[in-house]
Amino acid sequence: MDHFIYRDGILHAEDVAIPEIAARVGTPFYLYSTATLARHYRLFDEALAGLDHLVCYSVKACSNQAILRILAELGAGMDVVSGGEYRRARAAGVPGGRIVFSGVGKTREEMRLALDGGIRQFNVESEPELRALSEVAVAAGATAPVTLRVNPDVDAGTHEKIATGRREDKFGVPIDRAREIYAEAASLPGLAVVGVDVHIGSQLTDLAPFEAAFAKVADLTRALRADGHAIDRLDLGGGLGIPYSRSNEVPPLPADYGAMIGRLLGDLGCEIEIEPGRLIAGNAGVLVASTIYVKEGEGRSFLILDAAMNDLIRPAMYGAWHDIVPVPEAAPGAEPRVFDVVGPVCETGDTFARGRPLPPMGEGDLVAFRSAGAYGAVMASEYNTRPLIPEVLVDGDQFAVIRPRPTFDEIINRDTLPPWM
Ligand code: LLP
Whose CA is nearest to atom 22 of ligand 1? Predict the structure, then answer.
């Protein structure tokens, strides 16, 4: 459920009519709903209510300071994967003790940053990383809390590019070698083993792969405890999918996911951490664009928008579906037309959708891409020297720009000429 709904025939974000924002900010822009974000965070928090737990929002999904601040104030922890994300989380007021640091390529500088600033745990993904972290911690006179991210060799059944838990993926240490690597972790100075971490992929629409992975984590936890390790935390990663299309099958609800976690892992008495990103931010955001032209091509009509693949790359990169809806609802009885929805970027990959039924559209007409709050703005680029588009936040009947559109001078002046020119 989200808070983007039609009222009097006009798409609203909470209590604000989207055309009002478009008139003020100019298109294209990302638009987020505070109520939807808060609702989704609470769904996870409530789903794990029976267990000692921390919901660590995955910052990579949508990392605007205002978004992080909303979640931080609700009590969320954060999952970060770079020094930049660590800095963003801290700047939004998240205490270091609520931040977990994931990723296969943490640099020594990033480790030091987090050790100095405070960190809940490092989710370590390889033996070389473990050794580097030990050295950095010793040099800093600190003890680094660590989990090992295990690769359970489970296929998440999701898009090839976002499955992370198969043997051949670059993530984690093979679960079959985990006991040996935990033994090394326990023997290295500057490290304190605190738990086990797993994350098998993103946009999962079925609980079965999670269950398969978590069952392996439960067995491993018992074995590690028998080996003498204090395993008090289980970080189960993120990955629960969202409905991108209203007509598609509906992914499991956070409540079912939480119940499954309780059933498989509850008796271990560990603190449970989860790292949802998409389910919190995805349906809390839309991308609003306007029509530049309607172009009649060979046997097809192109709806050419002012948003492009550089603003929302998911369709080009993963063949992803986003519902595209008209901002003023179709007039009753209007014959739908079928469009290829494209942007102005100079490649055919800049196609959002083919053969989409929409009401008749003309120049200046607004559309909204639904489910664009996660992996939208954060994956944008300035390809074709198209400025990063603004982000806008709605809360009830108020709205504010939370990241302005840069000027062309700002963009061009970031380049510097070498001294010989
Ligand atoms: N934890 C770790 C270690 C992750 O790698 C990820 C996502 C998450 C948590 C959050 O997963 P979520 O709950 O959002 O599924 N750009 C792609 C998605 C990449 C996901 C990367 N890792 C997309 O647009 O579909």
Answer: 202
